[in-house]
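Chain A, query sequence.
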Amino acid sequence: MKQIYLDLSRNDIDSIKKIAYLCESYRKWFNVDFQFGRYTIDGCSIVGILSLASNIVKVCPVPNDDEKAIMSFYKKLQPFGAYFGEE
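Chain A, predicted structure.
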């Protein structure tokens, strides 16, 4: 199954704020969690994202049944280092 990953190490503080605001803008369709190892962080939390800023995280939209909204979200996340990978 394809999974969205995001390389947070490529982003500065302003980009991380934009990522959090982007996640917030999609709350109508789904919540976004970032997972790194056993840690799960709310994608709308700037402080939470900063705590994982030097890592590659798995992006988990919950629920993930609206494929059109998820693909739109992914396309907007690509400039920040998002890519598809295998789980």
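Helices lie at 13-25, 46-51, 67-77. The chain has a mean pLDDT of 93.
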